[in-house]
Predict the structure.
Amino acid sequence: MTPSRHFQSFPARTGNRTLFKMEHYLEIYDEMLAPYQGKDLNFLEIGIYKGGSIPMWQGFFGPTAKLTFLDIDPACRALQTPGTTVEIGDQSDPVFLNRIGQSHGPFDLIVDDGGHKMHQQITSFQHLWPSLKDRGLYIVEDTHTSYWPGFGGGFREPRSFIEFAKDLIDRMHSWYTEDDIGFPLHPMAREIGGIRFHDSMVVIEKRLKEPPVAITAANGQTNRSRRMLEVRGRRSIF
Ligand SMILES: C[S@@+](CC[C@H](N)C(=O)[O-])C[C@H]1O[C@@H](n2cnc3c(N)ncnc32)[C@H](O)[C@@H]1O
């Protein structure tokens, strides 16, 4: 299926509400979100600003999708459109985030386009990840702020969101640990299906899963094994 150019064509179709995105996200969204177009799903975006993304998402998902937008600025309340919900609160407030998850979740897609500071992105992820559905996507925009000291970032800054996301790579692979003390199995190994790093955007897919199996298949017969996870001190994959 050829993806539509809904997102790439949207800037030329905006009205008087300003949209604020990096241009290359639009092509990523057209490709990555094609399976979600017109779907009756549950969506959350953090960060409203002038409200330009509200009609963009609403036009993509269609009238039956449930769309929630949140911002810290009470003026954003006025930007709610029919069929959407605007909530006002701080994306670094766990109580507020838990309430959003309970009253509007679970979500199929979550986009963090809020304040882009390290503690905001990390706290939002920690408290909204449990409200993401199996097969859902958690998208963090503008992760270049991980390299900006003014946002709490910096190159290899341990408290940056990019370093946090790199740590998720380790958690996803923690099935395969040979170091139960320094690198123990993490519960998120059962939850993370994949992590995509784009320029300035990180996408974490939730996929509830059993410990992975290796298969050998021949003559139409499949043998399944978890030895990849169980045997220690390996020097060969076989
Ligand atoms: C980049 S703009 C959002 C742009 C919008 N999503 C779009 O695509 O046009 C960032 C927004 O995040 C909001 N914001 C900043 N800090 C926040 C926080 N701690 N909690 C919630 N929203 C916050 C700002 O008020 C601002 O409206």
The chain has a mean pLDDT of 96. The beta strands are 42-46, 66-71, 84-88, 107-112, 132-141, 192-198, 201-206, 214-218, 221-225.
